[in-house]
Amino acid sequence: MHEVTLIPGDGTGPEICATVKKVIAATGVQITWEQVEAGVDVMKTAGTPLPDNVLASCRRTKVALKGPITTPIGTGFRSVNVALRKELDLYACVRPCRTYRGVKTRYEKIDLLIVRENVEDLYAGVEWPAGSEEAKKIIAMAPKGKINPEAAISIKPISRFNTERLVRKAFDLAVKQKRRKVTAVTKANIMKCTDGLFYEVAREVAKTYPGIEYEERLIDNMCMQLVQKPELYDVICLPNLYGDILSDLCAGLIGGLGIAPGANIGDHGALFEAVHGSAPKYAGMNKVNPTAVLLSAELMLDHLGETDAARRLDQAVADVIREGKTVTYDLGGNAGTREMGDAIIEKLSKIPAAR
């Protein structure tokens, strides 16, 4: 029996999570769910999109599954997703990207693993508006003429501590999953101090894993490389902002965010979530694809040691997508969220457990 925090999210999150709970139950794994609410829907009653009881539950159970949560663009509250990672020190964002037969894409046989730093870099959100006293002080410290005096300012912290544990996680995953290579990605030719430190630490860590090949790429070149020849890459390790951007690029290689799972891993806990947004315009319509949250749940099962259940779930999802008979509109079908979940449950019932 496992105890897991469930954060259904908002928009389409609650209906996706309801389907995912049914599918997980069908794997035979026994889970007691502690459901807590976060996101835009709890703002009116709690006064915050991330109430204290959510963090308390995640810290107690040490494992959480989260549905998508709305993040305002430019204004409004800070991203709940970012706050959870920061507050729980979930320093490694792990996003597998692999192709599934039946999903329309220009590429075949993609199998990449993005390992993104999760708690610092520009995503730390340390910034000041144009004209503020803090921004003026920083501008005054810069060489004359380097920064426009009316600029807003954002700080990019890269530390040895966070970089080392992130890169080590990437190499550990490469070893565990029998992968061949880790590629570190930065823009160190321009940001020599911050991104240069990331490379410096990555090279030191790489020396302690002689069985895994190590290489480096600049972020702009890496984007081109992934579009032209993604088969050359395996594990990609990079700072927070570049990782956020490259994760979506890699999701595009395999057919979109609808089949892109995610895991946020720390030394004392883990949170599993889909990469995509909450699609509030589809809320309550039984329309959206549950695959990304289901595959995130698969990562959760593996994390809990339920490796056979994770294998069976992955096979069931792959079988339903390959057949294309009971899939949602974005996968070329006309099934609803619940109907696709039921089809996966039916497939699960026919996949024998390992002996």
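^ that was protein a. below is b, sequence first then the tokens
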Amino acid sequence: MTSGLDRTRRGRWRPLRARAAGAAVLAVLTLAGCGTAGQGAPVAPIPMSIHSEAFISGMLAQRYTCHGAKINPPLNWSGAPSGTKSLALIVDDSSAPITPSIYWLVFDINPGATDIQEGSLPTGALQALNSAGTATYDAPCPAGHRHSYRFTVYALRTTLKLANGAPLLPVWTAIAAATIGRGRIVVTGNP
């Protein structure tokens, strides 16, 4: 009945090509933890610290999900390595079947920034399209069982110079190629 379409987590239909793009993103995810040096040799990123006073006992409060205010939680980070030219933030659901759901992808964050405030975007930062096809924070919507949500900050050796609302895959690829530092916090969301 749905030839060429796939039902999303919110009941909308999307073309199967979106699933193919998701598979490509999964391939890029394996690179996203590492930067490259020279001619593309993998380099382990320098560890960064990330935390949020909003995550109590490792839980994503309902306020930051589709069941609450639907706003992004505040995040703080430190330890960006020397040579950082910009930062990026990716929020995804590692519990999603087949490919991760990307809820928020922020890039070209000022390299001196150390936080994102609740419900806002750092000045000058840009947003890529998420898995829902919007360039905004798409509040996670845990359903059925617990989900693990990853909030990952990347230190990049360049600014990405992509447009606001850029497609997800080119932004992922650019982040993977430019990563020199990374910090991640994983929280649990309950249905």
